[in-house]
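Slide 14.
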Amino acid sequence: MSHTPRLWTVVSCSLLVASLGAGATACGGGSDNPLSANPYDAADQVAFNQATGSRPVDPDRPLEVTAKGADGSRITDVTAVDTHGRRLAGELSAKGDRWHSTVPLAAGVRYTVTVSTEDERGAPGQRRMTFETTPAKKLLTVGFGPEEGTYGVGQPIIAELSEPVRDKAARAVVERALVVETKPDRVEGAWHWVDDSRLHFRPKEYWPANSTVSVRSNLEGIRIGDSLHGGGSKPLKLDIGDRVEVITNAASHWMTFKRNGEVINSIPVTTGKPGFSTRNGIKVVLGKQYFVRMRGDSVGIGGSEYYNLPVYWATRVTWSGEYVHAAPWSIDSHGYANVSHGCTGMSTGNAAWFYENIREGDIVHVINSIGEDMDPFGNGYGDWNLDWKDWREGSALLKGTQEGRSPVDAARLRPQV
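Slide 15: predicted structure.
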């Protein structure tokens, strides 16, 4: 009897029984039908290259299952699941006489292997075994940021690696294991390698307002490179607040404050004067300080331009010292001229209002300045100044792929269940 017709019979009967109902006896069901029996113990029909109860094995050694074949039995399926619920990829030969893993085993885990077989009459058998792999000698862990809390729609996710990863294939392993999920809706997003030890994740568009973002690593035990395996990492959960977007027009000297698409305030401001012009581009709020002592020499400004000022209601947008803050000393220029050293100044009352209505992760977009453009990385979060195509080019998985055509796109960000 050939194997192919026998498999077709199994599928056909299963579908017919399901369609007729629990009481149906299609395909001649009865006690003599081998397909109706519970799986028999197939211990004598298959062999493993790992031994149950033996000492932990090298995870670099592939798992192999073979059919002894003396009684005409063959393997129909193999599942190998580790401690973390991850299924080991493998390949079954066409004749059903051999199955082998096609990816390295995880380190420091226990595998449960279930082998399904059938004998020459088509009766199902099963064998199960467990074994452990040796712990990794060198671990790569991931630290996710920012800290847990509520953020604006522009906040990128940061992944800091404990070890540098330079190899392209190893980067793909890392990136594939970093999972970002949103609730309630799915949005498209991607990781971008900033350097060998740091990745940023952002959606194609801003995060949906009032959503939840969860981030985790599935790297634990996974082989990344020679002698390097993934370690355990603490997951991260962020709440996203309202969509707050601030547009600062350096040419008109006015700021527009929008919440969820609605303009709720317009504020006269002053930005950087010639030689100290405010950077153009999209910036993400980094933090807030009620009081900051600002000194020119801290940012390389001296001579006649030196300043030493107490500043209140300060909202930071770059690491190099650009803030939105109260500037009562220049109030006559607010709405008329740019006279600052790069910060955006406003009245004390307006600065206090701004401070109370802005949060980390909100968007501050400066337009029509004669200053330089905001860097994507290195001086705060300028991630949104890269268009989506260029952002995808920083992904080890998406680089060089056409948008919407890669199967990875659908898996990058998915809703929580």
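Speaker note: Residues 138-238+391-415 form a domain with the Immunoglobulin-like fold (CATH 2.60.40.3710).
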